[in-house]
Amino acid sequence: MSTTSAPTAPTTVIPTAAAHAAPGASPLRMAAGLALVAFPVLFTAGIATSPPQASDASRDYVASLGADPTLTALSAGLLHYSWVAFALGVLGIIGLVRGPRGRVVVPLAAVVSSLSAIQLSGLLLYDFFISAAANTVPLDQATTIFDTTVADPWVATWLVSGRLVGFVGIPLVVAALARAGVVSWWLLLAPVIGFASFVVPVPFAILVGMFVSTAPMIVVGVRLVQRASARVRREELAAA
């Protein structure tokens, strides 16, 4: 008697939505990366166009802002948008972490430096007001307005927290990313060299130093742009 068995029905695999959801390029990572690349360029341009002043005294500072309102507006605008670009772009570095190292310090560095940059960008508005005051009232009165404003506890707090990004924020971001293995620890030399330019009596030393100190963000921005591609995102999904 024949015992031929019935053919086995082929197993039907129902594809899930996740199987078809091949990730494309990330526009957010791309935007964050480009913002960080733009930051040193805008910042250096803002420093380069800062109106020259005779000394660090308040009176000379106010006089310099009022001497050329157009140049003042250009410089303040460039500096403002440089910090806006940094504040938005630096939050994207959280997505660069691919292991247990840096899972805490990188988000912390991103949030702290972003908040500091936001504080600093808002302070650029008073350059426009001081420039207008210097051309509206006598210089002594304009200087009094400036001194009274910066002595206010709220403004003083904004100044202190804003300046943190220049002296601490960028090195903090670089150190956090180096701890996570995203960038090299050697990048920390850039802010050190940049800050040293303040004591070098060479023409344009400060301008070059300011670019060098912020240049690590170009490296970080390029990393983000590279991670924005669809291929890299597929590899990340496969490794997850």
From TrEMBL:
The chain crosses the membrane at residues 30-49, 78-97, 104-134, 154-175, 182-200, 206-225. It comes from the Bacteria. The keyword Transmembrane helix applies. Keywords: Membrane, Transmembrane, Transmembrane helix. This is DUF4386 family protein.
